[in-house]
Amino acid sequence: MLIRIHPENPQARQLTMVKECLDDGGIIAYPTDTIYGLGCSILHHEAVEKICAIKKVDPEKAQLSFICADLSDLSTYAKSIDNALYRILKKTLPGPYTFILPASKQVPKILQSKKKTIGLRIPNNKIALSIIETLGHPILSASFPGENVEDYTDPEIIYEHWSNQIDMVVDGGIGGIVPSTVIDCTTDEFVLLRQGLGVWEY
After folding, report:
1. Whole-structure pTM value
2. Nearest to residue 132, comparing CAs of 121, 145, 144?
3. Does domain 2-194 have CATH number 3.40.50.720?
4. CA-to-CA distance for 155 and 122, rounded, in angstroms?
5. For the purposes of burial, counting CB atoms within 10 Å of the CB of 13, is it exposed (0-12), middle (13-18) or buried (19 or more)?
6. For 110-165, what is each residue's pLDDT tens digit?
7. Burial 29-64 (b: 16+ CB within 10 A, else e)
């Protein structure tokens, strides 16, 4: 299914349709403030495994991330956020960043790396945030497989190529081609793991 949602004023009816899909263990493609991503409810183990199969990665070895609605969610799913880190998170989020943080016990085990860490995002995108708010908990944030990011900017092309493997494509307009900037914050020295759209000056 291809469902169009207004990027500035997401419609409640369409958001409810997305929620029902995710509640049923469905997989969606959805817009963020960077590139379109693959997503599912973090509470559906089988859906997470299905996305890992699409990406051809082992769930136990993959560094999986998910999207939160706000900073209060971060404190639920991550631990050891001190004042200095919190100030950085508050300054940069919502925005095009993924922060690798120590996972709390609230994070489903399938989403934790062997190091007990998790990648967390709060994108500056009304559709993505509205989906989470409607669902009531975070959704997985995974990139499409392959190097041709340009293939994943147009939701109609995504639907054409992937409708046999995913349940819903959320059309929020043409997406970007640069992924998020990834920062490892599990030690006192924050480490830039991937330079993406977000500028990192810390």
Report:
1. 0.93
2. 121
3. no
4. 21
5. exposed
6. 887 777 899 999 999 999 999 999 999 999 999 998 777 777 899 999 999 999 99
7. bbbbbbbbbbbbbbbbbebbebbbebbeeebeebbb
